[in-house]
Write a structure and sequence with these properties.
Blueprint lengths: L5 H5 L3 H8 L8 H16 L6 H17 L1
Helix pairs in contact: 3-4
């Protein structure tokens, strides 16, 4: 009884609320999946596939510098 904290109590209602209202906003993997496509895959394609991690880091660094200009 002394652990009747609202945050702990609310978790019991999550499954019912998600079924009734759908997933909460900003709790989707779509944003991170899209970011992976835009950044990681483009960076990999910009390499010559030899020692690609260093090339990807360099490519990403350049893209960030261009973005900040």
């Amino acid at each position: 009884d002394h652990f009747n904290i609202p945050k702990l109590h609310a978790r019991h209602h999550y499954p019912e609320n998600i079924c009734w209202l759908g997933a909460p906003y900003n709790y989707s993997t779509e944003i991170t999946e899209r970011y992976h496509i835009e950044v990681a895959k483009k960076a990999y394609k910009a390499t010559n596939w030899k020692d690609y991690m260093k090339q990807m880091i360099l490519w990403l660094t350049r893209q960030e510098k261009i973005y900040l200009c």
